[in-house]
Structure formats: structure tokens, C-alpha cells
Amino acid sequence: MLDLKILTQALGDLEEDLVMEMLKEFTDTSPSEAEALEAVAACQAGMTIVGELFEQGEYFVGDLIFAGELLTEAINALKPALGGGASVVIGTILLGTVHGDLHDIGKNIFKSMSEAAGFEVIDLGIDVEVDTFVKKAQEIKPQIIGMSGVLTLAINSMKDTVEALKAANVSAKVIIGGNPVTKESSVFVGADAFTTNAAEGVKICQGLV
């Protein structure tokens, strides 16, 4: 039986071997998708610990990067239980961290989970210019455009991008995510949906297609 609290703490402590060992034992039991989502949530809670320790000066940028890589590794280990075997593409998501923001941990988690759910995800990376979003959206015609940001200034970049997409007659639904995102900021930006939780974001996207 997977102890979610121990898993959370292990990820928070950056104990890669313990995290991966626990997840291997867990996936060997053929868990349900709901149980796998609980494991994902426990891993995400571990990232909260990492963030707090970084703010307190206990962890450094290198630790943050390692934590993001560990989280991606953990999600990949859980993919089979999350329906990662999906061969039918249910929709395309164009994804990126908006102009002026260099954070990608949350974006990468969302990408991994979306792919596990059957989406094709085109990731533009970080600090994505407005024009880049517009041109790529016109080229691939995604059903959904996901914008991520951690800094407060990201909200204005999101708004600029949404306005440019609408001006270019791009009809994709827009979901925004990240720490500063609220219902109010979502309305300000002009997005169709918002989330601060990757698992919830995937469910929203499933509803949008």
C-alpha cells in the first residue's frame, strides 16, 4: 500500500531512489487511475515542500531544477496507470510559458499528465513571445492553448497573447495556469478556463474537447 505522506516527504527531501522505488512497487500492484492521480497529487505536494525550502534559503536553483526533473520522472512512472497507453489522440494542446517568465516546472507536469490522458502536446518552451503563440496556433490549429506563468507580470503577457489570438481569429479554447492565476485574473486575461493544479487542468481540457 502506497503511503502518500511518505511519498510527499520523500519528494520534498529529493530522495530520488526512495521515490522511484515506492512508485515502482505501487505500479506493480496495477493501481486504478484514481489511485494513480492520488499519487500524482502526493508528488505535487512534495513540490510544495521544495518551493517552501527554496524560499527559506534551504534549497537553491539547482535543487529546484532537480526537483522538477524528479517530478517528471515520477509522473512518467505513473503514466501507464493514468491511461498512458492511450493510442487515440483526443485533441491537440499548444503549450508554453508566456513572455517574460522562465518557469517551466508546472508546465512540464501539465504536459506529462496531458500526454498520459491522450492529448498531443506541442510545447513552445519558456518566455514565449505573443507572435510565436499566434503563428504556431495558425499553423497547427490546436483545440486548446495552454499558457503558464509563475510571476505576476505573466498575467499581462497572457492578456496580450489572448488579445492577439482573437485578433488573428484563432478559435482555440485558452486555459491559463500558475501561481498568480485566479478567477479574477482569468476574466481579465479573457481565458476560457484557469487552474493552479495540473491534474485539474487535464480534466478541464478533457471537458473542453
Automatic annotation (TrEMBL):
UniProt keyword Lyase present: no
Gene3D superfamilies: Cobalamin-binding domain (3.40.50.280), Methionine synthase domain (1.10.1240.10)
Domain B12-binding, chain residue ranges per copy: 90-209
Keyword terms: Cobalt, Metal-binding
Pfam family, one: B12-binding_2
InterPro entries (alphabetical): Cbl-bd_cap, Cobalamin-bd, Cobalamin-bd_sf, Met_Synthase/Corrinoid, Meth_synthase_dom
Domain B12-binding N-terminal, residue spans: 1-90
Protein name (record): Cobalamin-binding protein
Highest classification ranks of the organism: Bacteria, Bacillati, Bacillota, Clostridia, Eubacteriales
